[in-house]
Design goal:
- There is one protein chain.
- With 436 residues, the chain is of the alpha/beta class.
- The chain is built from 17 helices and 17 strands.
- A hairpin with a 2-residue loop joins strand 9 and strand 10.
- Helix 4 packs across helix 10, helix 4 crosses helix 11 and helix 8 runs parallel beside helix 9.
- The chain starts with 11 loop residues before the first helix and ends with a helix.
């Protein structure tokens, strides 16, 4: 089918080009790439021998915090000596960030080999970018003989393509409004979609929930006989204290823990992770206290995690963060407000977000550098500046993240703060620029 466009003896760049341009990719085009339902995923995985059934899996969903949670769980399992796969999305700089074994990205030749074999199959359905990438990960984990793979949900849960796995533990971090055009416009409706990863008899840990949202989870868990634990009912530390850019969690069952992830949302994620680890240990997993401490302290170096209140420089204090919805900004706005000096905010969004609700959370006295990421879904920076100006936020528009960041660097004094974010793709453009 694609022989006229690509050689079956393809290069890595051709394989990546095929994935990006020939398959619907939500990261780039948004709604047209969203394919609810599992039929294609089931058929594609079966064509490759259902590799996801050859090792244990842990399924991590939720609106915010699922990336940090998945990476930290993977780091803890690695520290405990388990050969650990990790599948996450989206990537920031390199496609291969999505698929890792013991922190190492999938080799380029494995990506190329998988795409070549897929093209030879004559598969009679049209998988999305995410569906094909997911099965690539599942097969690579089987080839690498992992003991366990931590699988992050892409979007939603019930109809997300990753929901073909049979995990030994499910984790749902929290619920807030995001992707409402697909998941529903109320928190209980979104919770119902996220709860779709709860499997019969499989323990589930819920990070944050209350009221109607908790009722959704409780009803779903009871209906399938899944034991459920609520992390916000049993916080396994006495205090979370900021220390030198880290967070110290005191009096945990694993001893005092230093967490390398320092965003204001991280104590909630940490509570979820600790309960999940406790649940794994009760199920017979051999995870020592020192493994938990190492995983929290070294999560970034062990798994390659980037973009979570990530420090770029100290003078001026410069950070980026991939938080991109109202739930994430409830934490980011407070953290930004507590940062030193004048705030210089480089910000951009995709065009299907509730931008107005986020803009209302931002500090009115900051200086703004409105920009757009280098993807088709990006909101025009001039439109963003106009919308922000109507809410009293003052700044100028810049056509690229690089130009916006350069302007902020030029204007900021050493005692100020520069923040870059609003969209995962703004952070991706920044890190790509800094890495070249």
């Amino acid at each position: 089918m694609w022989r006229g466009l690509y050689s079956i003896d393809m290069t890595y760049d051709q394989a990546i080009d095929f994935l990006y341009t020939q398959l619907p990719m939500f990261q780039r085009v948004g709604a047209p790439a969203y394919k609810p339902g599992l039929d294609t995923s089931i058929a594609l995985a079966a064509t490759f021998g259902n590799p996801q059934d050859l090792y244990k899996t842990i399924h991590v969903g939720g609106t915010n915090g699922k990336g940090s949670t998945a990476h930290t769980l993977a780091a803890i399992l690695q520290a405990a000596g388990y050969r650990t796969g990790l599948y996450t999305s989206p990537h920031l700089v390199d496609f291969r960030e999505r698929i890792r074994v013991d922190g190492k990205m999938i080799p380029r030749e494995e990506v190329t080999g998988f795409v070549e074999r897929y093209m030879k199959l004559g598969f009679d359905k049209s998988p999305s970018f995410f569906e094909l990438t997911m099965v690539m990960a599942f097969e690579y984990f089987a080839k690498a003989k992992v003991d366990v793979a931590v699988i992050e949900v892409g979007l939603g849960g019930r109809l997300d393509s990753t929901n073909i796995i049979s995990p030994c533990l499910s984790v749902i971090t929290n619920i807030s409004k995001d992707h409402t055009q697909f998941l529903g416009d109320t928190l209980p409706a979104i919770a119902s979609e996220k709860a779709g990863i709860i499997k019969p008899g499989v323990p589930v840990v819920i990070g944050e929930s209350e009221g109607d949202v908790r009722e959704v989870f409780a009803v779903k868990a009871e209906s399938v006989g899944a034991p459920v634990r609520y992390a916000d009912d049993e916080t396994l530390y006495s205090a979370a204290v900021a220390v030198d850019g880290d967070i110290l969690y005191r009096d945990t069952p694993f001893g005092d823990i230093t967490g390398a992830l320092s965003g204001e949302c991280q104590p909630k994620n940490a509570a979820t992770i600790m309960v999940a680890v406790d649940e794994l240990r009760k199920a017979g997993w051999h995870i020592d206290d020192r493994d938990v401490r190492k995983g929290f302290a070294e999560v970034c170096s062990m798994t390659g995690l980037m973009g979570r209140w990530m420090r770029i420089s100290e003078a001026p204090f410069t950070v980026c963060d991939t938080g991109h919805n109202t739930g994430g900004w409830q934490y980011l706005a407070r953290q930004l407000d507590a940062s030193p000096g004048v705030k210089h905010v480089v910000i951009g969004f995709v065009n299907d977000k509730d931008v107005t609700s986020i803009l209302k959370m931002l500090p009115a006295d900051a200086r703004y550098y409105f920009t757009r990421a280098s993807i088709a879904r990006a909101l025009d920076e001039k439109v963003l500046a106009e919308n922000a100006g109507a809410l009293g936020l003052k700044g100028a528009a810049y056509p690229t993240v690089g130009e916006a960041y350069a302007a902020a660097r030029s204007a900021a004094s050493p005692s100020d703060t520069i923040f870059i974010g609003g969209s995962t793709f703004v952070v991706a453009d920044l890190l790509t620029m800094l890495n070249t």
